[in-house]
Each structure stands twice: as structure tokens, then as C-alpha cells.
């Protein structure tokens, strides 16, 4: 079954297929990924009849261990988690085949949510507010943005790397691209981190430059601030985009992804009303209570746990430190768990 076919499979059949594939992949990873095998032994998890029984490896393990079945000679690419340069990053190893699966996973879900096949707008000018994958080869986000460039006739990256490895934005080049698109009445598609958008929008406010980008223009924002620049709330950021760029709130999309995963979640299909984040059919998210280790009730806050079938050569079950509120079959991010107490199987990681 291809990923495109999976988008139209009846839910019950899809659930059964997901369970079958998850159980089979878990059995392989338990044997092929040494640190995960030790973790599962500590958790007394030898088999799983249901995907929810699969032990989720905390993201902290990706910082301390090689969470991969790939031998060193086959690790042609490694993605690092974002953060300050003083933090020890997570590492997710890839080879050519795993990168192919990564791209096969991201493209159809991106197209469905950001480009929306039902939209009459075609081929907007793509402006990426991050460095290119060539400049930032260890960034999964830069790789993702480079991978979706093929959906656009025209695309540029206006992000840069400074001498310390931090991301910056070439404001002059960015504003020139906006000016060109506005003059040509060509819709614009902006992709960037929240911090890159804030830097651009603060400049617009300070210089009193208000754009009226052509109808059909849209924006995708992702990631946090990681101590870089001024922080604003998501509602405020979207208000700023609407005021200074002329992009309506209905055409602003939020993405949730991690270097430890190979699939992404989005909070809406443009231009529909924003809802909870949802992963594609080949991934599942649970909101787990850190006190009980069980699923939270509707409207309750817990920690995001993701099961991603596209994580073939690492582990499919990943316990994040992100906090979220459960919303029907989706979730709403609320922040990060600071100094969260490790409980249940997470305690076993400290003993490995």
C-alpha cells in the first residue's frame, strides 16, 4: 500500500493494517536496535498485540545513544534536534533508503494540507525563511523544505547560517522577493520557523512596511524560538502575518515535527478552520498522563507520544517532552515539560 492510497482507506481497515505493521516493525526493531532491545527488556516488553503496547523510547535516548539499526558505515546523514548550540542535540541517523521513505512520507501530507488540491491557486512563489539543506545538512526541517521545493515552479531560500552555526535571515533578499511577487500579482508561499517570521514582521512594523500579498498567498510556521529573538504567542504571530503581509488567518498553517520522527502533523487543511494537530495515517499520536502513563481524557493535558511507521531504521515509538491537550482525534500543543518526572518505562532509561 502506498502512502497516497493510505489516505483513502476506510478507518477500520487502516487501523488493522497499522496495528499489523506496527507489531511487525516493533519485533524487528527490538532485535536490530541494541539500545531499544535493552530498553524493552527493562520494560518487560517481548511482544505487542496492540500498537499501544509498544514501549516508547524517550527522546533523551537519542542524545545519549545511537538509536539505529544502521551500521556506522551506512549512516550517510544524521539529523540533529534544534536548540541552542550549548545543548547536546538528539541524533537521528539515515541512509539513502531511509531518506527516501522520509520524503515519501512528508510530501503527500504537506500537499494535502498546504497546497490543497481543491484550491484554484496554482504555483505560488515559494520563499523559504531557513537555510537550505546544503547549508544546514543536519537539519531535518531544512531537508523537508528542500524536498517540497519540487512542488513549486519558483523557489528561493533566504535563511543563512552565521559563524556560530545559528540561523539568521537575509531581510533584504526576503523583502525583495515579496516586492517582486506583489508587483507581479503572484501568490506567495512562505515557509519558516516562528522566530524567522517574527524577525521579518518586526522589521515590517518598525519600517511601517505593510504588504498586500496577492490572493492565495499562504504561510507555514513551525518550531519554537529556542532562545532566539523575541517570543510571541501563536495568535499574536498570526495577527502580525495578517496585518503586515496581508495573509488571512485562514491561510496560515502550523506544522509539528521532530528530528527523531519521519512524519509531520498539521493543524488544518488550508483554508479550513484550524483544529488539532493530526499525523498522516501511517503515524499515530497519543496524549499520555505523566502520572499514570495512560491516555488523557478529552481536554486534559499530557505528553505527546508518537508512533511513526516511517521510522524504519530507528524506533517507531517515541516519547516526546512536548505537552498537549487532547482534542478528539487530534491535539493542541501547549508547551514543553520542564524537568518532567520520569515514570514507568522511562525510568528504565536511566539504568541502561
Q: Could you walk me through the main structural features you see in this protein, from its secondary elements to its overall organization?
A:
By secondary structure, this protein is of the alpha/beta class. The protein has two domains: 3-87 and 276-349, Roll (Luciferase, domain 3), CATH 2.30.38; 119-259, Rossmann fold (3-Layer(aba) Sandwich). It is 31% helix and 21% strand. The protein contains ten helices and 15 strands. The protein has helices at residues 3-6, 11-32, 34-42, 61-64, 96-115, 140-147, 171-184, 194-206, 234-245, 346-349; strands at residues 57-58, 77-80, 91-94, 125-128, 155-157, 159-161, 167-169, 188-193, 218-222, 252-256, 265-266, 283-288, 301-308, 317-327, 330-336. A six-stranded mixed sheet has the order 5-4-8-9-10-11, with helices on both faces. Strands 1, 12, 13, 14 and 15 form a five-stranded mixed sheet that branches. A hairpin with an 8-residue loop joins strand 10 (252-256) and strand 11 (265-266). Helix 8 (194-206) packs across helix 9 (234-245). The longest helix is centred in the first third of the chain and has 22 residues, at 11-32. It starts with a helix and ends with a helix.
Amino acid at each position: 500500500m502506498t502512502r497516497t492510497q493510505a489516505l483513502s482507506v476506510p478507518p477500520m481497515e487502516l487501523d488493522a493494517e497499522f496495528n499489523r505493521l506496527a507489531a511487525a516493525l516493533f519485533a524487528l526493531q527490538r532485535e536490530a536496535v541494541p539500545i531499544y532491545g535493552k530498553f524493552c527488556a527493562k520494560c518487560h516488553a517481548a511482544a505487542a498485540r496492540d500498537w499501544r503496547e509498544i514501549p516508547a523510547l524517550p527522546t533523551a535516548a537519542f542524545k545519549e545513544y545511537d538509536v539505529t539499526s544502521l551500521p556506522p558505515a551506512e549512516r550517510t546523514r544524521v539529523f540533529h534536534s534544534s536548540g541552542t548550540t550549548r545543548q547536546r542535540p538528539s541524533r537521528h541517523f539515515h541512509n539513502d533508503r531511509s531518506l527516501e521513505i522520509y520524503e515519501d512520507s512528508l510530501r503527500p501530507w504537506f500537499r494535502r494540507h498546504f497546497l490543497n488540491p481543491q484550491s484554484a491557486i496554482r504555483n505560488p512563489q515559494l520563499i523559504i525563511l531557513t537555510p537550505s539543506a546544503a547549508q544546514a545538512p543536519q537539519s531535518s526541517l531544512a531537508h523537508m523544505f528542500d524536498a517540497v521545493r519540487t512542488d513549486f515552479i519558483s523557489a528561493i531560500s533566504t535563511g543563512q547560517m552565521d559563524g556560530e552555526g545559528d540561523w539568521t535571515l537575509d531581510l533584504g533578499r526576503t523583502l525583495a522577493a515579496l516586492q517582486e511577487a506583489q508587483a507581479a500579482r503572484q501568490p506567495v508561499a512562505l515557509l519558516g520557523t516562528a522566530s524567522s517570521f517574527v524577525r521579518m514582521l518586526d522589521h515590517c512594523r518598525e519600517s511601517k512596511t505593510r504588504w498586500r500579498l496577492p490572493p492565495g498567498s499562504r504561510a507555514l510556521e513551525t518550531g519554537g524560538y529556542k532562545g532566539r529573538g523575541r517570543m510571541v504567542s501563536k495568535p499574536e504571530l498570526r495577527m502580525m502575518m495578517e496585518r503586515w503581509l496581508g495573509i488571512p488567518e485562514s491561510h496560515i498553517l502550523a506544522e509539528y515535527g521532530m528530528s527523531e520522527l519521519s512524519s509531520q502533523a498539521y493543524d488544518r487543511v488550508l483554508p479550513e478552520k484550524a483544529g488539532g494537530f493530526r499525523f498522516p495515517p501511517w503515524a499515530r499520536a497519543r496524549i499520555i498522563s505523566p502520572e499514570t502513563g495512560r491516555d488523557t481524557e478529552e481536554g486534559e493535558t499530557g505528553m505527546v507520544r508518537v508512533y511513526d511507521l516511517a521510522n524504519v531504521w530507528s524506533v517507531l515509538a517515541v516519547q516526546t517532552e512536548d505537552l498537549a491537550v487532547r482534542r478528539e482525534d487530534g491535539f493542541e500543543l501547549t508547551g514543553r515539560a520542564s524537568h518532567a518526572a520520569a515514570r514507568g518505562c522511562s525510568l528504565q532509561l536511566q539504568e541502561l
